[in-house]
Amino acid sequence: MVAIEQITTEVMKDKALVNVIVRVRDADGMEGVGEAWWGIPDRDHPGRSASPIVAVIDDLLAPKLIGRDADSIERLWYELWDWGYRYADQGIFQMGMSGVDLALWDLKGKRLGVPVAALLGGPISDGIPGYASFPPLREPELLKSETARAIEAGFTAIKLHELDPELTAALRAEFGDELKIMVDVNGHFDPIEAIEHGRRLSELGVTWFEEPVRPMRDHAAITRVGDAIACDLAGGENEYVLEDFDRLLSTGALAYLQPEVTKIGGLTAARRISALAELYNVALCPHNFRLGPALYASVQWAFTSPASEWLEIPWVSPDVEFSFPVSLPPMRDGLVLPIEGPGLGCGEA
Length: 349
Fold this sequence. Notes:
TIM Barrel
């Protein structure tokens, strides 16, 4: 047994895109690095929206873990989940658990000198298609230049966060049918608006229409939209526990499932969701818009599931930086490659 000696959190907010980093140190002095969800963006007060998640880790989770066996990841996860159930089995409690869980997996991989994917059975493919996920840009020429830059970097697919379908139409006209385009509206529309929007996107041949309605967990409304349009739907980034994903998938509305590893409780929970994706025969496409442990954990996870079809790679302009200083995962010809470094493989910050 190697005991957990210290758990610390850091809200990294020196750059435009905030990271919430969790570090778990064992009695031998080795350290694992994880990441919790970063909160709703707040330009006026960067990082402030992460404070409730940090409090969960510092005040609830860390005191229960100090002195425990750092290798007992599954046991610790279930003990925390059972103990904290009355706080909530969703939301910020699960987000806090995600950060700790990822750090523990990173620590174990580093101690054994192997990638986390090896601990989960090893990669089952040589590469997974990655798509360049843009932030909202709104300007046609900026969208075209960023798309061209992504294609030059080897991507064959992009994801837009645009509310005007004619911006998607402009890219289709500019780059042709070979470019795969996904569109995420973050639950912006009511069902009637979403159906109208989705029909236009269907005409443009998009790969998927993501989170079409608000509330984003209104499964009945999602199903209504899916039944009325021709293009596939994607979603799931705002679900939390296994039962949530089962209820969502049982609707049959989604073709692409997008769990967010920093919300669901980390990789320990992710392994169960992989099985659900297989059971319901949907494509697993881990959601992520951070450069750091969350992205690398998503890559490690995706390579252990036969349901994996796409990996989301955050793609921002060169003057916008993530707070965690790590490069993009290895890629070749539009494919994300297995990560070979120990642990999550994203190094230290």
